[in-house]
Design a protein that fits this description.
The protein contains twelve helices and 15 strands. α2 packs parallel to α3.
Amino acid sequence: MCSAPAFAARPTLLFYCQHSLGIGHLTRSFALVHALTKCFRVVFLNGGRLPPNIHVPPDCELIDLPPLGMDDGHTVVSRDASHDLAQAQAKRRALIERCALTLRPAVLLVELFPFGRKKFAGEILSMIRLTRRQSGARAMVVCSLRDILVDVRPDQQLHDERARWLADRYFDAVLVHADPGFARLGDSFRPRRPLRTSVHYTGYVVPTRPAANVASADQRGSHLLVSAAGGIVGSRLFHAALQARTLLQHPLPIRVIAGPFLPDAHWAALQHAADGVPGVDLLRRVPDMVAQMRTARASLSQCGYNTALDIVVSGVPALVVPYQTPTENEQHERATRLAALGTLLHLSEAELTPQCLAAEIGTLMRFSPRPAALDLDGATRSTELLDQLLWAGIHARGNSYVNTP
């Protein structure tokens, strides 16, 4: 699978990932790292808070930057009480630049930027410029991109033009982690001038897990599984589910997976709302959401990249209420497309009342999902593509890759 000679050290791949609101970007990136370490020495720059007890991929060299995040989806904040924002940003930039100069990577893989993460552009562009002008062979710079982008910003056209310019100026390739039969970059990215940088579709990236058959209806449990990924914006869904349950003719057991990033005050309020209520089970986190879905009668969740794929892989009857704001529509678009395939049911966040949710849960109990025939081999294909692109560039230049012992 790898092009490097058997006796050669693995080329160094520096992977920058900044998860800001939830854990979806981190989950997908770690799933990629599992495959990438087969061909590359992977050094992972982690820009957000690591969830408690998360499993870091083996053979991955993890470097935690002073963690930053978003308090409302728009404002960058420090997630470390010992640093204010300016201090965290200065320390991050110094650490990132030191890594770039020391490692001299053969590949720099940047998650989402320049199609997002505009508020982190200073540290990202500094890193890119350093690796492009490093001694020896410059790094191959590649963007790791999800399937569907936000396309409802007030300045959307300006955003797309800027992203297109940056991609053409600084990036050698864009890897879109999607099945092009389901979602293509051009569906949500529309600059006036076409992107010159090469775009490669990898298929969807899912974590490696033991194979298991999709459970039939009579093999599933009796409970409704309620989740919202990291949980940072899940409180409204959780409380609506508890209230909707009381309106059902035959209340069913509910298991709520709150998520590691549900704010502590919201977790306490949820515990208070469920206190003494029979048939309600609250968990802060679980190691494998697919395993939970495979044993549930049905699932109620949002529709981020990883949650949607968990639904597809598990085959669980699912109702999704995608997270949506005036400037966030990615989950809504994904949910609409999967609902059109018959893979899940879809309720908009504007309709999230206990009464509407109770009615939809009733429909969910009678719903039989149709399998979504999506390409799920994105991690392996991404590794193959990066290996091929790197060695094609090496042969074209007639020099060797940069490698640091």
